[in-house]
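Researcher: First entry.
Model:
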Amino acid sequence: MPPIRLNKNDEVFVDEQVKSGVYGSADEMISAGLARLREQDTETLRLLIQEGIDDIEAGRFHVYETAEQFLADIRPTADGE
């Protein structure tokens, strides 16, 4: 993996966080940030799954008899119409 390059503002922020003792090192801070992003992705996925469950329970869905019917329905959307 190539080294991570930060802009000057980010470098200053990381240095401040490490010097203040919030993080033990820049690596620790980056790891904490990545862990937070993973948590955020997991939470977003959980919310989207729940939204789908809620839609099904409320009857907000459509059953297609064939793949062609489904494709005919989504093609206008995919074409930007």
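Researcher: Second entry.
Model:
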Amino acid sequence: MPLRCAVLDDFQKVATELADWTPVADDVEVVSFTEHIADEDALAAALGGFDIVVTLRERVAFPASLLARLPRLKLIVASGMRNSVIDYAAAEAHGITVCGTASSSTPPVELTWALLLGLARGIAPESNALRAGGPWQSTVGADLHGRRLGLLGLGKIGSRVARVGLAFGMDVTAWSQNLTEERAREVGVHLAATKEELLATSDFVSVHLALGDRTRGLLGAPELALLKPTAYLVNTSRAAIVDQDALLAALREGRIAGAGLDVFDIEPLPADHPLRTAPRLLATPHLGYVTEANYRTYYGQAVENIRAYLAGTPVRRLP
């Protein structure tokens, strides 16, 4: 009897199309879940009959309480080489191997600029008006050339966002708690003396920090109050870095020009969530990593991970 593999959050129904699963076809039955399962009881019921789970990003948590209810589970494959919602100690205690995959930084860089440009030029409202027979031009676009782009974080993604900003002729500045003048010079940007300085002087602010104890809630109401009323905020990193209630209030009250979000405290975002109807917001459903090349890597390496596990030589083990 073959092992059973659950592929979670296959919203586009492409998990078995964008990778060759034939190397494990004789040993593994693959079942794709195209709807998100958020409730732990529902997850325990749905996954109880599976030996392997392939999970995308950090949308589905695997705490000790859930792992204890999945006695058949022996392998978790997560996309990317970092996952903060898997209890690794509990997995080890239950004899569950956890493996990851490579993940490209290119897609989130590109989506960051899609959101930033969409905000600056009013792409969504202008397109909607045109298609609905509304007014011919109703917004005045914000220029990028000569304006300041402030980056919170200058790692793999932030540095690539910076280089695009420089190509647009923007004045790019960056800040993070560990950022050095030397690193900023390597990328060709200015180092802001403080987070507060960056927020107060930037025309566009983009978040590119890892989520941790020091960055959770980094941008709350006091920090958002520092932004210019003409400034835009983009977050394609982690939702918890920005206080979403404070951001919602700033958008509703017109204290900033707009925001672009690809990440949310709850995913998928409930149908009645206030962010779905917030003014001045350009939002996408966590598309930062969702490209054909990235999916081919995720699912292709998931197959490799499963094959290696079956051979008794697991690869890309986490953490």
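Model: Note on the second entry: The chain has a mean pLDDT of 97.
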